[in-house]
Design goal:
Rossmann fold; 8 strands; globular; 2 domains; 44% helix; alpha/beta
């Protein structure tokens, strides 16, 4: 195995704008269900808590243009936003670990609507491998086979922290380039690997801390 350097900030450079794009899409979908045909940047900004200028700036990054007087056509704008994520069709991903988090993700039905196709999961526990599930649970010796067969480039790590680094190395050596890490540990990876760390305990504790403060907090 190669020795990798710690990359604390190995994240997609467009991550912040992509998160706002997802917020815009969610607002647009709600407006679409209400029969709204056209929308303006200031409306989307008000819905998502940003300025109209920020909305236009985010759209310009992805070459999405509207009409100064007529705004944006809702149906077309939704299609334009979805093309950002779905331009290559459905994306095949795998889940490493079928504990509580891994199983919850495997059973999350909205992934299908987002064209996220979980093709397999992996766990060293024989009892997990016998689970009856639409998403099969394989042993680790089949990892390379599955990654190659389904051309997997993105994986979710939901294993205990003690095993996360070894699992991460295996994925990287098999050609996986994007990792969503639910293990509470900073992973060591090459500089080209994209990592999104999701620590649920940290998120909960940060919110608990903020709401317990007597006055407004400055960042």
């Amino acid at each position: 195995m190669k020795n990798y350097n710690v990359k604390k900030n190995t994240i997609c450079p467009l991550r912040k704008s992509l998160r706002r794009i997802l917020l815009y899409r969610g607002s647009l979908l709600r407006l679409q269900t209400l029969g709204v045909k056209r929308v303006y940047s200031y409306t989307l900004g008000k819905e998502t808590g940003v300025s109209a200028e920020q909305v236009r700036k985010d759209f310009s990054v992805y070459r999405i243009k509207g009409n100064q007087r007529g705004g944006y056509h809702v149906d077309k704008l939704i299609a334009d936003l979805e093309s950002i994520f779905y331009h290559n069709g459905s994306q095949n991903i795998i889940i490493m670990g079928r504990g509580n988090i891994g199983s919850s993700l495997a059973n999350y039905s909205n992934f299908i609507q987002r064209k996220i196709n979980i093709v397999a999961s992996f766990d060293i526990d024989p009892s997990k491998q016998r689970l009856r599930s639409e998403i099969p649970v394989y042993t680790l010796d089949r990892l390379g086979e599955v990654v190659k067969r389904f051309e997997v480039k993105t994986a979710i790590i939901a294993v205990p922290d003690i095993a996360a680094q070894e699992v991460c190395k295996q994925l990287v050596e098999l050609g996986v380039e994007g990792i969503i890490n639910f293990a509470p540990v900073i992973l060591k990876v090459p500089s080209h690997i994209i990592i999104n760390n999701v620590n649920l305990s940290d998120e909960i504790e940060s919110v608990i801390y903020c709401v317990s403060q007597p006055g407004p907090l400055s960042t």
